[in-house]
Amino acid sequence: MAGVTGRLVRGWCPRAVRRLSLLLTSILQCLSFTFLPVAKFTQPFSSLQVPAQLHMSKTAMGASQKDFESAMNQVKLLEKDPGNEVKLKLYALYKQATEGPCSTPKPGVFDLINKAKWDAWNALGNLPKETARQNYVDLVSGLSSSSDSSSQVKPEADREQAGYETLVMTSEDGITKIMLNRPTKMNALTTQMYQEIMLALEAASKDDSTITVLTGNGSYFSSGNDLTNFTHISPDEIEEKARRGAILLRDFVGCFIDFPKPLVAAVNGPAVGISVTILRLFDLVYASDRATFHTPFSHLGQTPEGCSSYTFPKLMGPGKAAEMLIFGKKLTAAEACAQGLVTEVFPDSTFQKEVWTRLKAYSKLPRNALRISKQMIRNHEKEKLHATNAEESRILQERWLSDECMNAIMNFLSRKAKM
Ligand SMILES: CCCC/C=C/CC(=O)SCCNC(=O)CCNC(=O)[C@H](O)C(C)(C)COP(=O)(O)OP(=O)(O)OC[C@H]1O[C@@H](n2cnc3c(N)ncnc32)[C@H](O)[C@@H]1OP(=O)(O)O
Asked: What sequence ranges are listed for the domain ACB (predicted)?
C-alpha cells in the first residue's frame, strides 16, 4: 500500500505521503464492505400478516397454539420473499390472532408502511382470534409449499415479486423493473395502482438493485390518471374524495421526489398526464420513437401536477412549458428530447434491446457512487419540489370540484357510448 502510494506521489513531503496512504487504506477498507456477499434473505416476518377470505376450512376445529407457533417459525425460514401484499396479510392475521381487533390510532399519511400495516389489520374487523390463527397457519402452509416448488424452477435473480395486481415487479442483473400492467386500459392509473407503485418504489429503494426502472406493458407507457377514479361518487362524498385524492397525489409524487437510487423511465409508447409530468423527477428518460407526450390538463378542467408547474418552465422555458401545460400541445419523442424532457430516443423496433443493454452496463457501476451522485444532483431542489407538489395537489383538489372538470370527465366517459 505504502509502495503504491509512494509511486503515486513521488516528490511529495513524507507527512503528506503518510496521510494519503492512511486515506487510501481507509477507503479500501470501506469498499471491502461493499463487496461482502449479501446475506441470504431470511428476514423474519413474525411481526407481519392471511386474508380474511382465507376461508373457514379448518376453522371449526381451529389451529392449536402449537400449530400457530410452528407457522411463525416457518415464516422465518421462507427462502422467497412472499411480496408486500402477503406480508401485510401475515402481519394483520398475526396481530388479530394475538391482540384481537385493531384498536390502535391510525398512523399519519406520510407513515406509509405503518399505515399500510394498520389498514390491513383494521380491515379484518371483528374476525375472531381463533379464525385469524387458523388463517395464518393456512397461509403459511401455502407459502411454504409454493416456495419449495418454485425454488426448483426459478433462478434467484429473476424472481417476479408477488403481491401486486396492477404491476409486474422483477429484479434481475442489478435492475428492479416496475412495469405498469393494465395494457387493455392503456395503463391508466387507478387508485390501487398509485398505491402499488408507492409500495413498489419503497421496496425498490431498499432492495439490492442498483437501478430502478418504470415502464409500461403493451402499446402505451400510461394514459395518466384513470378518469373512472372520478365516477361512482355520491354528491355528499365528493369533497371527501377530492381531499383524499389530493393526499394520494401528494404522497405519490413525493415518492418520486425522495427516491434515493437512480430512477429510469423506459417510455415504451405514448404517455399522458401525470405519466408525463413526473418524468422530470427521473434521472434518465429513454423513449421509443413511437412515444408521444401529452398533458391535456386544461381540456379536462384541471391543472398541472407532478411538480411540472416548476420543473417544465425551468427545463424548457416558460413559452414551451405553456404550450404543453396550458394549451395541451402533444410532443413527439424527438420534440420532447429537444426540450430536455427525454434523454434519448430509440427506434421502436430496437427500443427494448438497446435500452436494456445500456441499463445492464450501467447497473454494473459502483452502486453507492451512483446513489450518492444522484442525491447530490437532486438534493438542491428537494424542498422546492415538495412545496410545489403540496401546492399543485391543493389546487387540483379545488379543480376536481369544479363544473369544468366534472363536465370534461363526463364527456370522456360518454364518448364511447356515443360511438
Ligand atoms: C390522484 C391522482 C390525480 C392525478 C391527476 C392526474 C392528471 C392526469 O393524468 S390527466 C390525464 C388523464 N388522461 C386522459 O385524459 C386520457 C384519457 N384517455 C384517452 O384520451 C384515450 O383513451 C387514449 C388517447 C389514451 C387512447 O385512445 P384509444 O387508442 O382510442 O383507446 P381507447 O380510448 O379505446 O382506450 C382503451 C380503453 O382504455 C380506457 N382508458 C384509456 N385511458 C383511460 C383513462 N385515462 N381513464 C380511464 N379509462 C381509460 C378507455 O376508456 C378504453 O376502455 P374501454 O372503453 O373499456 O375499452
From this structure: 64-149
Contact 238, 397 (CB under 8 A): no
- Those residues with Cβ within 8 angstroms of residue 106's Cβ, 6 or more apart along the chain or in another chain: 115, 118, 122
Ligand 1 and 228: CB distance under 6 A: yes
Q: Could you tell me if the CB of 186 is within 6 A of ligand 1?
A: yes
Is the minimum distance from the CB of 408 to ligand 1 under 6 angstroms?
no
Is the pLDDT score of 52 beyond 50?
no
Pairing, β 284-288 against β 263-267: parallel
Residue 304 in contact with ligand 1 by CB distance below 6 A? no
Q: What is the pLDDT, as a whole number, of residue 47?
A: 33
Q: What is the predicted pLDDT for the residue at 181?
A: 98
pLDDT, position 146: 59
- The ipTM of this complex is 0.98
Cα 319 to ligand 1 centroid, rounded to whole Å: 27
* Closest C-alpha residue for ligand 1 atom 36: 185
In short, whether 244's Cβ falls inside 6 Å of ligand 1 is no
Of the candidates 402, 201, 387, the one whose C-alpha atom is nearest the C-alpha of residue 309 is 387
Residues of the chain with CATH 1.20.80.10: 64-144
Alpha carbon of 337 to ligand 1 centroid (Å): 24
Whole-number pLDDT of residue 257: 98
Alpha carbon distance 133, 62 (integer Å): 8
Name residue, grid cell 406493458: 217
Is 167-417 in CATH node 3.40.50.10190?
A: no
179-225 pLDDT per residue, tens? 999 999 999 999 999 999 999 999 999 999 999 999 999 999 999 99
